[in-house]
Amino acid sequence: MLKTIDRPESALVIIPHPDDGEGGCGGTIAKWISEGTKVYYILCTDGSRGTSDLNMSPDRLAEIRRGEQESAAQTLGVSEVVYLAHPDGELEDSREFRGELVRGIRRFHPDIVLTTEPYRFGGHQHRDHRITGQVALDACFPYARDPFHFAEHLGDGLLPHKVGTILFWGSAEPEVFVDITQTIEQKIEALRKHDSQVGDGRAGRFFNQRAQQLGEMAGVLYAEGFRRIDFRR
Questions:
Q1: Which of 30, 136, 145, 154 satisfies CB 3.0 to 4.6 Å to 14 for a cystine?
Q2: Which residue, among 213, 214, 209, 212, has the nearest Cα to 226 in the 3D structure?
Q3: Class of domain 10-230
Q4: Gap between the Cα atoms of 52 and 4, Å rounded
Q5: pLDDT single digits (tens) 44-87
Q6: Domain ranges of the chain
Q7: CA torsion sign, 61 to 64 to 70 to 74?
């Protein structure tokens, strides 16, 4: 039986690298946007080291990947992308990074935050993914909620905001699912915009197969799955 989640009025996707958002929740985002949800992205790193090409420079790759992310976000209908541009591979659980995410939450007022699972024990995971998921969780609760965490935001007119739910993609044991049968092609199209990463088509096939696997778990053709945490209001 499909255990799903109600469509939010607003959602914020907190993404370690360009292409992670589309891979993790692109079908869900496309579905929700088509139904009226406002969706915003915070992209945490510049993706400048995601290549094996010794002839590519980090600065050039960062420029390419920013353009790819713009195109992918437009394909899905994302309202805005915030680029934090931390160096790829160098995210830290720091006050600076946490404050940037709190600022985004207070600015966009999301009902739901989506990000990468920080606690995946069954296989390898990029360190930036672990850091992003953990810091996003802390930013939602309690930091964005309580006015005297990052009180400097008050001077910028940013009031505290209570996030209702955080959804982690990439969990080994997803709890809730979104049926993306109608938006799987849009998800794959958005992924193809990241040509520097998935230009050979293999990644597209991987995400299609993964959506089929999650669909089998949910009782639909294609799905995305998430671990869910609800916060006290």
A1: 136
A2: 214
A3: alpha beta
A4: 39
A5: 999 889 888 888 898 999 999 999 999 999 999 999 999 999 99
A6: 10-230
A7: negative
